[in-house]
Amino acid sequence: MSATKTCPSCGAENDVIFTNCMFCKTSLPQIDMNSISNEDLILNAGEWVGKARQNDYNLVRKDSNANEWSGK
Known about the structure:
By secondary structure, the chain is mostly helical. The protein contains 2 helices and 2 strands. It has one domain. About 35% of the residues lie in helices and about 10% in strands. The longest helix has 21 residues, at about 40-60. A two-stranded antiparallel sheet has the order 1-2. The mean pLDDT is about 80.
């Protein structure tokens, strides 16, 4: 089972890496990261990196040169 944080405002389940609710933007409670099992960390690492980097990709304009970002 994946570790989550419950939003105190709207009750939505959020990934443990979030500091604000992804739905209502309310601050989420802090948790002890050591309480997350190694299995959960490994299973979710790729997804969390993708979510953390999502804004980087959204900044690319539709008409920009894709090779500009890859250096090719």
